[in-house]
Amino acid sequence: MTIIERLAREATFLRRHAKKGKGVKRLPALWLFTDPHRIPDPGPILAGLPRGAGVVYRAFGRPDAVSEGRRLAKLARQRGLTLLVGRDVHLARAIGADGVHFPEKVQLGLQRRPWRGAIFTMAAHGAMGISRCASVKPDLVFLSAAFASNSPSAKQAWGATRFSALSRQSQTPVVALGGVTVTTAKRLRQSGAYGLAAVEELAKGAIEKPANRRP
Predict the structure, then answer these.
(1) Are strands 140-143 and 174-177 parallel, antiparallel or unpaired?
(2) Would 214 be classed as within a structural domain?
(3) Which pLDDT does position 26 carry in this prediction?
């Protein structure tokens, strides 16, 4: 079984046993966060994601954000993936994305459903962020950093026990982000989380050589 397949299996397990898995909008349990520095070309990763997975496209001000976004949107449609754009509502509309993901630091008044029917998610880095999310009712909260991460923006690594406590405080389904690997994901099975999000582990899975794949 490949890295991506194992992560997808763990994410599906979480969604099935999530604290808030029933009666909420059914959304992807496995998410890729793009990063132009760590993943210059996310196309091959999108091609390897299972149908029904999600992608958060973060342009980070790149000059070709629209053309790159439209390329990824086309790949997402072909693969049956849900595509969100980080922070930029105008970019999301321009590329035909399914919704917008807002970082925790965005001004609270701007964190809202960008258009009717759009998927709306938010980031949180602790109890204060979770509390802010409760006031605007996003569809999902991406809580980080679950574990130690190489991301330059990563905050404190919570670890499985503290992450689980924070997850259960949230009124909104929580997705674990930060340091998520096949190994660390298993430590979240009792966390009440809804799913998993990753950058490097999914990138690693996309270039995994057949000889290294487990049966």
Answers:
(1) parallel
(2) no
(3) 86
- The model's pTM is 0.92
Number of domains in the chain: 1
The contacts of residue 17 (CB under 8 Å, 6+ apart) are 189, 192
Domain that holds residue 95: 3-208
The domain that holds 128 is classified in CATH as 3.20.20.70
71: which DSSP letter?
H
Structure tokens at 127: 């109890």
Q: What is the mean pLDDT of each run of 10 residues along the chain (215 residues)?
A: 95 91 78 93 95 96 95 98 96 98 79 90 94 90 92 78 96 96 97 96 82 47
**In this structure, is residue 215 part of a structural domain?**
no
The pLDDT score that the predictor gives to residue 213 is: 47
| Sequence letter at residue 168 | R
In a domain, 66, yes or no: yes
Q: Is residue 153 part of a domain?
A: yes
Query: What phi and psi, each to the nearest 5 degrees, are found at residue 63?
Result: -65, -25
